[in-house]
Amino acid sequence: MQSKNAHSSSFRDPSGYIFTDNNKIKRLINPIYFNQYNALTTSGFFDNLIKNRLLIGHNEVSKTDDEIIIEPEQIPFITYPYEWSFNMYKEAALLTLKLQKYSLEHGFSLKDASAFNVTFHKGKAVFIDTLSFDFYIEDSPWRAYKQFITHFIGPLLLARFHGAQQLKLMSNFIDGIPVKMISSMLPFKTKLNPLLYSNIHLLAKLEDKHNEDYKGEAKIASLSKKGQLNIIESLYDYIKKLELKEQSEWGNYYDKINYTDEAFIKKSVIINSWINAIKPKKIVDIGGNDGTFVRRIDFEIKNALVCDIDNNAVDYNYKTMKLNKEQFMLPFVLDVLNPSASIGLNNKERDSFLNRIKDFAPDITLALAVIHHMSLSGNVPFRNSAQFFSTFSQYLIIEFPKRNDSWVQRLLKSKGEFENHFSFYSIENFEIAYSEFFTITEKTPIVDSDRVMYLLKVKP
Amino acid sequence: MYFLYFDPGLGAMIIQAIIAAVAGFILFSKNVMYKIKLLIGIAKKDKDDVFDDIEIKDSDVENKN
C-alpha cells in the first residue's frame, strides 16, 4: 500500500505514512482514516491544537478518493526522547496527557502514546503524529495507557530515583521500558504511594498474569470517561511535580571556570566578530553547556542547536529557553564520544546524530572548551576529532586550551603515571592535525588565559 | 473503530478501572486538602512557571507559551 517512498520510521500505523518529496516531509493518509481526518478538520479540533502550537501545523496538498496528502510544517532538527533532559521529557509527557484530555472532551482519543510522537520545535514540545487521533468509543479504556506508562512515566520515575542518565534507556527500549523492569527497579517506598502502586506495580502484576492469555478469554473491562479523565489528571499532577533528586547545582556553571571575567567577555567578543563576518543562519554548539555563549551572540541566528553531555546543563538551558520564550534555541543531551546511533528496524527507524546533523547542515560548529576533554579524557587523537568536526559544517570555531591551562593540568594529573602518554597534547600538534582537514582562517589568543581561539574552514 | 496495530496489553486494559478509582480518590483528597489549607490560610500558589495547566483553551487566542 506504500506506493510513495515511505520514510523508514513510518510503517506501523495503517492510517497513513510520511514520505520525502523534494526534500520535504509529507504525509499520505489512507482511506481507512478519511472519516477521522475529516471530523478532526471540520470540527476545528486540528485548528485549535495547531493554534496553541501543541500539534504541528499542516496544509492539505491534494485530496482524491484514494489518498489525501498533507504537508506538515518542516522541523529543522528532530530530537529523540533519549536526547532530552529531564524537564524536556516532562514537558513531552505532559503534552501527551493534555492532548488525551482534550481529545476525550471532544469525542476523540489518542490511539498511541509513543514518546517518539513528540519532538521539540520553536522552544516547546510539539506533537508530530497528526494521525494519532481516533474516535473515542464510549466507556472504553485508553488503549495507549500502557504505552504511556512504558514511554513516559517509567523513564521519568527511573530518572527520579536513579538519575537522569536513566532516560538514555529509551535508546535500547525503543518501544518503552518493560513495566516489569520499571517495577523491579523502583525502591520499595514507591509501593506505599497509591498512584505509583496502582500505575506501576499492580500493572506489572496484572500484565504478568494475562501474558499467556492468547485466546483473549479475559473480558475487556469498561471504563467511564470520567474514570479515564481521573487517571489522566492524576498522572498530570504527579508528573508536573516530579523532580530529580540530584537537581542541586543549577546555575553557577561559569563560576567554576578558570579564567577571569574579562577573558570570558573577550572570548565572546572574538566569537561575535567572526559570526558577524560569516552571517550564519544555523549553528551547532557541541559541548555548549547551558547555552551561555550562544546567548551572547549578537547576530540573529535562525536555529541554534546546543548539545552537552551533562543533563543538568541541558536542563538549565531548557529552563532558560522557556523563561525567555526563545524560539531559536534547541538544547539536547549528547555524548560527543558516543553520539546517538541509528536504531530500530533495519537500523533506520531513528536516525543517527551524524545523519541528522548533516541534513541540518549548520553553517558554523562551535566547539568551546571541549577539545581537551575529547583528547585527554576520551583519548581521542587530534586527527580523529578533526575528522569528526569536518563532516557536517563549513566553519569550525574551536577553543584550544594550552598545556599549562589549569583544566588541562588537572586532566593530565588525573592520568598519574600515564601523563607522558599525552605528550602529544600541544598547540603545534593540534595545528598540524587540524590542518589536514581545515584551513586556519583566524587565530586569536584569549588575553589573560592560556587559551587560543581558532576559526577554521573545511578544505574543499 | 480502532486499528489494533500495537498490543495495548490486556492487563493494562483490565486494570484501568482500578487505577481510575485510585486516581479519583487521590484527586478528591487533594481537593479536600487544598480547601482545608485555603480555609486556614496556608495554601501555597504553584510556583512552577515553566509548565502550564492541563486545560487547552478552545478560544482562538494563541496560548501564551
**Count of strand segments of chain B:** 0
| Largest sheet features of chain A | 7 strands, mixed
How widely separated are the two ends of chain A?
Answer: 43 Å
Rg of chain A, rounded, reads: 25 Å
Strand content of chain B: under 5%
**What pattern of helices and strands is seen along the backbone of chain B?**
H
Structural class of chain B: mainly alpha
Helix content of chain B: 40-55%
What is the strand tally of chain A?
A: 15
Query: Largest beta sheet of chain B, briefly?
Result: none
- Low-pLDDT parts of chain B are 60-65
CATH class of the largest domain in chain A: Alpha Beta
Oligomeric organization of the protein chains: heterodimer
Q: Given the helix and strand composition of chain A, which structural class is it?
A: alpha/beta
CATH superfamily of the largest domain in chain A: Vaccinia Virus protein VP39
Shape of chain B: flat
Largest sheet: spatial strand order of chain A: 11-10-9-12-13-15-14
The CATH architecture of the largest domain in chain A is: 3-Layer(aba) Sandwich
Integer count of domains of chain A? 3
Q: Count interface residues per chain for the largest interface.
A: A-B, 75 and 39 residues
List the helices and strands and how they pair.
The complex is a heterodimer of chains A (460) and B (65).
Chain A (H helix, E strand, L loop, with lengths): L15 E6 L2 E6 L4 H9 L2 H7 L6 E6 L4 E5 L13 H20 L2 E3 L7 E4 L2 E4 L5 E3 L9 H18 L16 H7 L8 H16 L15 H17 L19 H18 L3 E5 L5 H4 L7 E6 L2 H14 L4 E5 L19 H8 L3 E4 L3 H7 L4 H8 L5 E7 L4 H8 L13 H9 L2 E9 L4 E8 L2
Parallel strand pairs in A: 9-10, 9-12, 10-11, 12-13
Antiparallel strand pairs in A: 1-2, 2-4, 3-4, 5-8, 6-7, 13-15, 14-15
Helix pairs in contact in A: 3-4, 3-7, 5-6, 12-14, 13-15
Chain B lengths: L9 H31 L25
